[in-house]
Amino acid sequence: MLSAKSVFQEILADDKAFALFCSIAASGESQGGWENARIAALVPDSERELAPKITRHGADEDKHGRIFNALMKKRGLDPVPVPPETDYTMLLEKNGIGLAHEQLGRDERLTVQDIVTYLSHSRVTEQRASEQMQLLRKHFADDPDIGRAVRQISSDEDNHLAYCHEELLRFAYAGHGRAIQRTLRACALAEIRIYRDVSLAVMAHMGRILGWSRAKSAVLAAGIHAMYAYERLGGWRRMVSLKMPERRDALGGPASTAPEFA
Predict the structure, then answer these.
(1) pLDDT by position in tens, the chain (length 262)
(2) What's the pTM?
(3) How far apart are CA 113 and CA 47, in angstroms?
(4) C-alpha–C-alpha distance, residues 88 and 93, integer Å
(5) How many Cβ atoms are within 10 Å of 47's Cβ, its own excluded?
(6) Rounded to 5, what percent of the chain is helix, strand, coil?
(7) Are 261 and 149 in contact (CB under 8 A)?
């Protein structure tokens, strides 16, 4: 039976497919680490207390990149080039979502509105990351090869999502509510389209590596399009709601170290 679990089991069992999967994931996490580090360095003076949490967020993303690279190394695999059409993080930036790398590369203080934009973008993308890792955790938490990595990353992504909720609510109470909702909506509608396109591109590459039939590839593509239709019709709203999380001050401490996989 074709399912998310069976598809990932195929990817996990094939060295070339696994190397591509891990390389895509590691690249995205590393980009996120750089972005958060730059944002932490450029936080406006009025929000300096937020800088350690942003730094922690970036350190977690860097750690995730190291984990995916370690998973490849454990199997004697090297990272492979990431096809541009599968680069979720860069495609978001090219579509004007979040803070541009050009802006982050300058040594100019960000504004409070920039921080609201960053947190809104993160709230949307961390929703996606949390859901993806919960799915992997459901099926592979006890897997001897990737179980520890899945559990660690899933827990971190849940912390990141909780942090975004809490900080955005703080800004909303401070009078930024309308700007937050406007930015969240724009981010969510762009993200679901980019996620669809990236998912189709990743599945196309995996299909070529794993030798999927046209029928199997068509079924998987139809599933991706169906998910997009659901999200476009209203599923995107889960990405823009805000509520005080059970995990308070989720990024208030130092980042945990990456587990060893050697």
Answers:
(1) 678 899 999 999 999 999 999 999 999 999 999 999 999 999 999 999 999 999 999 999 999 999 999 999 999 999 999 999 999 999 999 998 999 999 999 999 999 999 999 999 999 999 999 999 999 999 999 999 899 999 999 999 999 999 999 999 999 999 999 999 999 999 999 999 999 999 999 999 999 999 999 999 999 999 999 999 999 999 999 999 999 999 899 998 766 665 555 4
(2) 0.94
(3) 11
(4) 9
(5) 16
(6) 75, 0, 25
(7) yes
